[in-house]
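>> received
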Amino acid sequence: MKRLSLPVKLQLSKKSAKIAVIAVVLTLVFGIPFIRYGIFVKFSAGSGENRVILDVKEGFTLTKIALELEKLRVISSEELFVVYAKFQGSEGNIKAGPYLFDDGMTPPVILRKLLAGDVYVRRFAVPEGYSMYQIAELLERRGIVGREKFLEQCTDPSLLAELGINASSVEGYLYPCTYDINPATTAEALVREMVFQFRKHYLRNFEAKVKALGMSSREVLTLASMVEKEAVESCERPMIASVFLNRLRRNMPLQSDPTAVYKVRAFAGRVSKKDIMLDSPYNTYRIKGLPPGPIGNPGPDAIEAVLNPARTNYLYFVAKMDGTHCFSVTLDEHNRAVERFLKSRHVPIEARDLLPSRKSG
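>> returned
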């Protein structure tokens, strides 16, 4: 019995060794990929310094998206990302659009963004009263679209015809509000969206009132754009509208400061004698009646002020030092107001019998 014990132990040792070898092989074959997969899912590919935008188009497959993410060095493995997404049952639920990623995001964070449609947009606010030239400059400064490209679309005859705007530009039809803009947005698409928003709000709130008033939409927008530029305090819009409408009824020149510098520079609150002498079809110091079109893009309150002006006999107004205006019925009253409120501002005497006003923009 003792003689048989040694060979049995040797046999057991050989079997144990084989099992150990098999275990090691199995660990190498199956365990390392599982470990690698676990590390891939838990950790990001970098520190977050690599920021990229990936525009996921309609029809992009999961493999295509993963491949692009790997090329952009957002993830370390296209294959493992596909495996992870399929394991989560997410293969057919990814939404198209531009996404902002960085290499500090883990695969679960990346996948959640794709499934939620958490697309990258830039918010851009169009201030009330801004002209298309001012909007173009803002867009360029923000790096959204170039100034010249935007203005080119604003005056493109074929686009104007398509949008139903019988004018030389979209001035007055770019609705002032906040827009979410994705990086792929073109200047043309942006103009379309701004005009679409105008149409939607104008049709709902003002079209019926304009028809009842007997004015054309373009006349209302033109007058509203002037009111918007002149008014500093919103409560004065109906008063300023009443002055312009009263002057129109009397066939008096409107003499609105912002019209004198339209297409020349942004109105910053004052005009000079040189400004009011400019030969421009928009300069209401040189023409009678309304300019040929809007001088900016009015907000709904300015349009409402034109449609429902204050009932006054005022024909003049002059800016005070606090942002409000002094309104007058007669020229004598107005001249006294000019002396009182503008004398300290060194306004040229030649301009004091005109219609001074003030609004930044």
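>> The longest strand covers residues 51-56.
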